[in-house]
Specification:
about 190 residues, about 25% helix, five-stranded mixed beta sheet, single chain, 5 strands, about 20% strand
Length: about 190
């Protein structure tokens, strides 16, 4: 992960999952209704890698509802599960830990586009158990992306500026912020 220690690592969700995981030790089930932004956030790639490795199975029900978007994207997200209580994506996630199971599997379900709050709640009520949810098994990429996986082709291109640590080939040998006089309108 290239993410730095910051607000994401101090998130109460991450801390709660860590504490619950320590309590169940080698075998158990943990369930949370959470802010689902970690599902495809770049800053949560390390968290996704960690839980995918630590738990035997993950069951993620993405109820969407992200209202921190606008226009057509906001309409596609559908209604907010908690009505006016939250503008964030909401997800229900079950973490299953069983040290006797060698594989780590992620099962993912996402509600459809444009669903209103009531339709999402009715959909949830129709699921009798986890087996009745039409999960699809997902395989994370090496960057920890679960959905909306990044393309690797971009990283094969020659970068514009040299990385000081890697000393990789680049188009430009040096870089700077250019002329910065504090009075730029007069300089140009």
């Amino acid at each position: 992960s290239t993410a730095k220690v910051g607000a994401t690592t101090r998130d109460t969700l991450i801390q709660s999952i860590r504490m619950a995981s320590d309590v169940v030790k080698d075998r158990g089930v943990i369930g949370f209704v959470v802010n689902g932004s970690f599902i495809d956030s770049k800053s949560a790639d390390g968290f996704r890698k960690c839980v995918a490795k630590e738990f035997s199975h993950l069951y993620v029900l993405n109820l969407r509802g992200n209202q921190r978007t606008s226009g057509e994207v906001s309409k596609k997200e559908g209604g907010k599960i908690f009505d006016s209580g939250s503008r964030a994506t909401i997800a229900i996630i079950f973490f299953v830990k069983d040290s006797s199971v060698p594989n780590n599997t992620i099962f993912y379900y996402e509600v459809g586009d444009y669903l209103k709050r009531e339709a999402k709640l009715n959909l949830l009520a129709g699921f009798e158990n986890l087996e009745s949810v039409p999960f699809k098994e997902i395989t994370p990429n090496h960057k920890g992306d679960w959905i909306n996986q990044r393309e690797d082709a971009f990283e094969k291109l020659i970068p514009l500026k040299r990385d000081k640590k890697l000393q990789n080939p680049s188009i430009f040998d040096i870089n700077s912020s250019g002329v910065a006089s504090g009075r730029d309108p007069w300089v140009y």
